Amino acid sequence: MTTRLRFLGVAAYEIVSRRHRILIDPFLTGNPSAPCGPNDIERPDVILVTHAAPDHLGDAFAIAKRTGAPIVCGADVRALLLDQGLPSDQVRATVWGIRVEVGGVLVEPVECRHWSMATLSDGRIVSGVPLAFVVEPEPGVRVYHYGDTAVFDMRLIGELYHPTVGLLGCAQPRALAHLAPGAGRMVTGEQSPREAALTAEMLGVKLAVACHYSETSDPDVQEFLRLVSELDTTGKRVAMAMEAGQVLLIDGNSHRLEDV
Amino acid sequence: MTTRLRFLGVAAYEIVSRRHRILIDPFLTGNPSAPCGPNDIERPDVILVTHAAPDHLGDAFAIAKRTGAPIVCGADVRALLLDQGLPSDQVRATVWGIRVEVGGVLVEPVECRHWSMATLSDGRIVSGVPLAFVVEPEPGVRVYHYGDTAVFDMRLIGELYHPTVGLLGCAQPRALAHLAPGAGRMVTGEQSPREAALTAEMLGVKLAVACHYSETSDPDVQEFLRLVSELDTTGKRVAMAMEAGQVLLIDGNSHRLEDV
Amino acid sequence: MTTRLRFLGVAAYEIVSRRHRILIDPFLTGNPSAPCGPNDIERPDVILVTHAAPDHLGDAFAIAKRTGAPIVCGADVRALLLDQGLPSDQVRATVWGIRVEVGGVLVEPVECRHWSMATLSDGRIVSGVPLAFVVEPEPGVRVYHYGDTAVFDMRLIGELYHPTVGLLGCAQPRALAHLAPGAGRMVTGEQSPREAALTAEMLGVKLAVACHYSETSDPDVQEFLRLVSELDTTGKRVAMAMEAGQVLLIDGNSHRLEDV
Predict the structure, then answer these.
(1) Does the pLDDT of residue B64 top 70, yes or no?
(2) Quick one: which of B188, B129, C113 has its CA closest to A129?
(3) How far apart are CA B147 and CA B55, in angstroms?
(4) Closest by alpha carbon to B37, among B10, B59, B52?
(5) Nearest CA among A206, A191, A14, A10 for reference residue A112
(6) B228 forms bridges with which residues in the sheet?
(7) How far apart are CA C176 and CA C171, in angstroms?
(8) For a tag on chain A, would you pick the N or C end, based on fewer CB atoms within 10 A?
(9) A39: how many CB neighbours lie within 10 A of its CB?
(10) CA dist A130 to A157, A172, C115, C182, Å?
């Protein structure tokens, strides 16, 4: 059995196993590194949205509308999606700790220390709780998506949810700076490279996959790759940064990047 | 001196000692296991509301309106209650850490990792911070109400607030699934049975009382009872699941369920 | 090189070094202990606002408007400031972990467990994420502002951000009780004196500076000063409570209160 984890740029992933097809944070329109558009996405069993930021919520509505796929998200994102026209029974709101089964997929939302806010069509502002997720596309392959969390002591999440693959934000997508106008500039992402590498250690993942960047050449991504090894007490952790469009093949305990 | 802790179903409790009468999360109307209605509740000294969810806020407004009892809650719940017509001086907003004295009761709100959202009468949406509470109905009897928190490292709360009785969510009330419509289904509550049992250990409570269920026969409740012992490093922790309407009598270091 | 840290009462500070002038939580109008008014404040390089509470947001808008100084804050405070008329490019929203450089100052926002809510001019309610901050006015002088957080395990913040000076809330400004009307009364601030002293230990600061009070004679402030020493495992930590208007001079590893 093989799990195919395809990187769609920024924080978007498509995870396909024999049993499940899971789409996470499908930001494609406006994502300069996206390898495809929202209409190219095959119907997933479930779409996971970590929070309402445009570079995470992305095309979730359009893909759900076209394919009928259900969405798992926080209550604020659910309010927004229903406001945009998705039917109530296509969206499942959850929160940290409440495991849900949607589209046949067991989804485990875990704590994420970030923020989430959306504006409804009538101007009302709705704030919610951002989510990180753990899903298990095949037995033993447990994928953690960080959902833009800041660093915190994640050892308990490691012990209770034992993820094997971590999609860990370590940078700020330079190409998206225009999405956050304002004074001055952002220097790091929600986690510095060191903090991201530290979460890999605290979570105990085998594969530490860089997330939340425009280009693998970003110095923060490169520093993350270096620091994962430096902070690794297991001697076995593998760090990688995928090009958008690349597929990581995970087969039991082995893995490789698919030839293009 | 004896403290009487009466379970009113789901997450609702009435705690009565010689000095205090405390009502927590009084969800009675629409609670299939409630042993009484809101009009049967004697005037409490204070009503504690952990967050704005209907199965926790419940009949707080009606009981406060009828009895004049003050309410302690978060700022979003206060906004909702004032919007519904309670006078400002009947509601005390607080947040994690700010101990308040209301109705002669010292109320200690502690961190709760969940969410809280309400809609005011004019449609405005207000989000806030959910609360867990510690109260001391008699000296040495310190009751922690979890307020729907997800699991986190609660050892510091244990050390600083040293609760002796924990009201710990370990399930999802099956009878209330209709309150959260959407795709798929919820598999667990905010804490799995193992996570809830782990919080009992981290908090160091003597009595670990199951909370947030419809029926004590719920497999998650039964697993919680089993796991509390398994994770107990003190060898002295007692786990219990009360029937709605039952009263737990706590007398210094001893306790027993009242005969019906 | 000397850093001048001036206390402006409650939680407001002006930090001036040869390189930077930083203003934090400039609550002056309505602050009974403020040594000056908003028009007396020299143009800062940057204004930091931890959250939307009136005793923290304070005169930030007026000072920014008059001086043109940029503001760093959470997204809800940014929404409020733009609503009040500040231009978008004068305000930088950030969140825990995203370091920003604004006005030439590197600002490091760290986790803060509190709440933040504001009402816009059209009545809309916006909730956000409160911030604590670390700034370095000169190399090696790293100032942490607690931003009204409740206590939590801050050891990781200590390890990753290694603050040397902690501005630590340990009381509730008695003179401001009218800002929070409601039933009963507040007994403590967001942190008890013991909790505040414990954060000094967890953060590893050399200087533990009391914050969030009206008068240094407040019993909670006095208890904080005592407990900082009691909980200090380094044997070197210095606790102090400044009078509003006083200036703390920090010169490398030495410090003293300026003569008035």
Answers:
(1) yes
(2) B129
(3) 11
(4) B59
(5) A191
(6) none
(7) 12
(8) C
(9) 11
(10) 16, 18, 15, 31
Nearest to A115 by CA among B149, B129, B35, B187: B129
Residue of B158, B137, B140 whose CA lies nearest to B5: B137
Looking at the complex, report in whole angstroms how far the Cα of residue B165 sits from the nearest Cα belonging to chain A: 22
From residue B46, give the alpha-carbon distance in Å to each of A240, B72, B249. 55, 7, 20
Q: Identify the pLDDT of residue A1.
A: 78
- A68 in Cβ contact with A43 (< 8 Å): yes
Average pLDDT over residues B134-159: 98
CB-CB under 8 Å, B126 with C127: yes
C257 — contact with chain A (CB < 8 Å)?
no
Please tell me the distance from the alpha carbon of residue B196 to that of residue B71, in angstroms, as a whole number.
Answer: 27
Reported as a pLDDT band with limits 50, 70 and 90, residue C252 is: confident
CA atoms of A93 and B171, how far apart (whole Å): 17
C52: tokens are 């939307």
Pairing of strands C132-138, C105-110: antiparallel
Interface of A with B in 53-72 (CB under 8 A): 70-72
The C-alpha atoms of residue A25 and residue A200 are separated, in whole angstroms, by 20
When scoring B115, B124, B192, B224 by the number of chain A Cβ atoms within 10 A, the one with the most, hence best to mutate, is B115
Tell me the sheet residues that pair with A59.
none
Confidence of residue C259 (pLDDT cuts 50, 70, 90): confident
Distances (CA, A) of C148 to A77, C56, C83, C115, C246: 28, 9, 24, 9, 21
| A30-84 pLDDT per residue, tens | 999 999 999 999 999 999 999 999 999 999 999 999 999 999 999 999 999 999 9
| Cα dist from C54 to B36, C10, C50, C69, whole Å | 42, 11, 11, 19
Give the integer Cα–Cα distance in Å for C149 and B95: 10
| CA–CA gap between residue A50 and residue C190 (Å, rounded) | 29
Interface test with B, best of A72, A100, A161 (most B CBs within 10 A): A100
In 10 A of CB C37, how many CB atoms? 12
Task: State the average pLDDT over residues A232-247.
Answer: 97
Instruction: Indicate whether B260 pLDDT > 70.
Output: no
Adjacency order of strands within the sheet including C132-138: A185-186, C100-102, C105-110, C132-138, C141-145, C165-169, C207-211, C238-240
Q: How far apart are CA B134 and CA B129, in angstroms?
A: 16
Q: Specify whether the CB–CB gap between A75 and A99 falls below 8 A.
A: no
pTM: 0.97
Residue B221 and residue B170 in contact, taking contact as beta carbons nearer than 8 Å: yes
Element holding A63 (H helix, E strand)? helix A60-67
Q: Which amino acid is residue A7, in one-letter code?
A: F
Q: What is the pLDDT of residue C1?
A: 78
- State the amino acid at position C63 in one-letter form: I
Residue C49: how many other CB atoms lie within 10 Å: 31
Which chain B residues have a beta carbon less than 8 Å from that of C190?
95-98
- C74 CB within 8 Å of a chain A CB: yes
User: DSSP class of residue B158?
Assistant: H
Backbone angles phi, psi at C80, to 5 degrees: -65, -45
What would the two tokens of residue A258 be? 């698919």
Dihedral sign for Cα atoms in the order A189, A191, A193, A199: negative
Instruction: Give CA–CA dist C189/C211, Å, rounded.
Output: 10
Token look-up 């095959």 returns A42
Place of tokens 């978007």: A12
